[in-house]
Amino acid sequence: MAHYARGSAVAVIRLCNPPVNALSLAVLQALEDGLKKADADPSVKAVMICGENGKFSAGADIRGFSSPERHGGALGPIVSLIESSEKPVVAAIEGVALGGGLEVALGCHYRIAHMKAQMGLPEVTIGLLPGAEGTQRLPRLIGVPAALDMITTGKHIPATEALKLGLVDEIVEENTIEAAIRLANKVIGQPLGPRRLSLKPIPRLPNMEAFLREALVRVKQQARGWLAPELCFQAVRAAAERPFAAGVRRERELLQVLLTSGQARALQHAFFAERAVRRWAAPSGASWSSAAPQPVRKAAVVGLGTMGRGIVTSLVKANIPLVALEQNLEYLNKGRKAVMLLLEREAMKMEGGAQTLDFHNPARLHFTVDFDLLRDVDLVIEAVFENMALKKEIFHKLSKICKPGALLCTNTSALNIDEIASATSCPQQVIGTHFFSPAHVMRLLEIIRGRHTSPTAIATAMQLAKALKKVGVVVGNCFGFVGNRMMFPYVQQAVFLLEEGSRPEAVDQVLEDFGFKLGPFRMSDLAGLDVGWRSRKDQGLTGPSLPSGTPARQRHGQRYSPLPDLLCEQGRFGQKTGKGWYQYEQAGGRTATPDPWLHSFLSHYRDTHHIKTRFIDQEEILERCLFSLINEGFAILAEGIASGPEHLDVIYINGYGWPKHRGGPMFYASTVGLPRVLAKLQKYSEVHPDVPGLRPSAFLKKLVAAGNPPIKEWMSYLSQQSSKL
Ligand SMILES: CC/C=C\C/C=C/C(=O)SCCNC(=O)CCNC(=O)[C@H](O)C(C)(C)COP(=O)(O)OP(=O)(O)OC[C@H]1O[C@@H](n2cnc3c(N)ncnc32)[C@H](O)[C@@H]1OP(=O)(O)O
User: Fold this and answer.
1) pTM of the model as a whole
2) Which residues form the 3-hydroxyacyl-CoA dehydrogenase NAD binding domain (predicted)?
3) β-strands 430-435, 444-449: how paired?
4) Considering 102, 204, 418, 597, which has the largest number of Cβ atoms within 10 A of its Cβ?
């Protein structure tokens, strides 16, 4: 709704649709009615538009985009109606003015904002463009370069920056509404022509053509298959090259393309999935709404290897005082140096520089080798080597030293949380917090609930994720949890494809064309091949504990590829050694080049094992890698390791470089169609009966038998009892 009220000469229209005043059809109708009422009332001399509860508006109601009548775009004509008003209209921007919300403000003749307000046109992030004439008005107001930046990235900008850009006329520290009414009274009777953005010429650049050409190259490079940024660019180019009305027509055409592209639906699924995962629930009935987090006033990180360093950096950035602990002075000094370097780099990126990150103060960040200094911390994150015995030893020590109630988190990527917790006297306080490398950059935090983990511990870990500006996803305890467990069959297929005749660069190309930032081989080289090798040795799959006589390409009756082990035996650990699946310019180098040595090594390997080489096409590469990953996702859902498909999607988008415009692996499966995914898995499984990852999961079969229900209904085909959360 929008409330209309008339006080003195200024009519007030207040957008009202909690929690963010999204512009539903009802709100738009009420806004239109309010404008017409104000126009018809001779005692009204000016209009002020604001939002209820200190928020202007977060834009069009995203949930409404799936309904066909929304495609017509009711908002554009209303923005035009505001602009053409003969009475001055002032926008009072508090909280957020995003998307259609900002477009409404652009239709107003004056904009006044609270200094804490945020503004932006984030439509691109949900696969759309600012289709209420925003692509035409914004460049006229702030110029093409700044408008292009805002529209193609969707970034939110603070009021102070908006003022510098000329997006708002004034910012205030106190009461925005009163200031807007004062401004409205002041401008009564002044000419409105110069305030109507549709009539303004585009600010000229001496080299507009060259600027646009270069900008397009940049936009395309960053988009990697994501359509919206390029179409946003085209709409802004139309603003630069055509009169307003023609630009608006072009904007509409481009919006139609996006609305029907499928990417918008995928990105909107991702938007709501990220919000859905905040609402965790345990089978005990405890949930996000009932469990209260414990305050974390002081934390500790144990282990200053690559992960520990990133975690420390994350905590410092979140302003949480902490103790960083290593086992001896040599490791401590090495870790301290690396952390300081990271923090200095982060401080440079932040507004205000080093002053905003107080990391030189030992009361905020204390490096030590003394376990006793962990006595008063509220939360510890252990980030040592991935070794069960070592982790258990540390947790035993922690449970003796830390104060009662302290949360004990383990940054393991696969190990059993219950076994780690068994080394303590407080298993209810033990929880997995799986960070992704680099831990101060990657948004995902997989939060693993053990059998005894308390709801308070889960709530505290989720709160921590929020404080670190990460997306926390609660999952159950199994080998590899959700992310890595789904990754195993994907990487396994990639390696099998090499055995059968493909090359690392061919497999990577297919998956990078699909939209992954890195294909599986480039990714393995970056992460380090030795990590998986160590884990396989611990599992007895390779190395000295492998029983003699074990067939080279079989383990426990299933197909196994020793290729990654053989590379590690040659000292090829990936980027860190300058050689892995690719060759690099030097140890630590980042430019992957196909390696003739590896190609001949593969030929020799195939000859040794009498494997007939064949040509493998792109479709098979894509399907075998992705469908085996998705298949594992269905098994995870059936076992109750995750609460729903959207959890898996959020994990993959934020932790594994899955292209967001494809909505996550489970959403992707729903768009391919489950019958097709099943048929393809059945086909590949028949050819490779010794590969369990290709054997269709019972849950996938059940959904296909149930008639391929929409993704939202999948979980209703499982019983509640199966939940391991
Ligand atoms: C055909 C015409 C085409 C183009 C014209 C215009 C298009 C648009 O305007 S598209 C929408 C553009 N706006 C956005 O993309 C903003 C999206 N929202 C956000 O970024 C954030 O929600 C926020 C910054 C506004 C607030 O963040 P936070 O405080 O963290 O709260 P939540 O994100 O949890 O949001 C609370 C609650 O509100 C729901 N919600 C937010 N925005 C919208 C929206 N535009 N439409 C519908 N619902 C919205 C959000 O889902 C949360 O609800 P749930 O927890 O139930 O999911």
Assistant:
1) 0.94
2) 298-477
3) antiparallel
4) 102
